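hey so i finally got around to running the thing on that chain from the lab meeting. sorry it took forever, my laptop kept dying and i had to restart like 3 times. anyway pasting the input first so we r on the same page abt which one it is
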Amino acid sequence: MKQKVNPKIVNLLLCLGMLVLLGAAFLPIVGVNWPWLRYAYATGAALTLVSQVLTPSADNSLRVRRLTRMNVWAAVLYCVSAACLFVHDASMQKSWVAFLLAGAVMQIYATMMISHLTGKEKS
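ok and heres what got predicted. didnt touch it at all, straight out
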């Protein structure tokens, strides 16, 4: 039997993960280079991935389900970005920003389209 996950807990995980991800990505830009920031970034990426995997699809529409999976892939890109921080190759350490931005663009698009489609169907 499949247990349902409480959507409030999933949303809380997503908010917490995104805030940790944002903070750990922003602090090096302003000159704060603490060694544990990459671990905080990886934790935020993992929380985001877990919350996106546990998020149920809003309805049975094929397009909405695909957009929900797109959010999962965006979270996977966040995790790849976090993995780039742990590689000791200089070119890989600089590419974490590209994966972060790619995931952010995918998540923004998918979230806006899900909101648009579910609002359009209710009308």
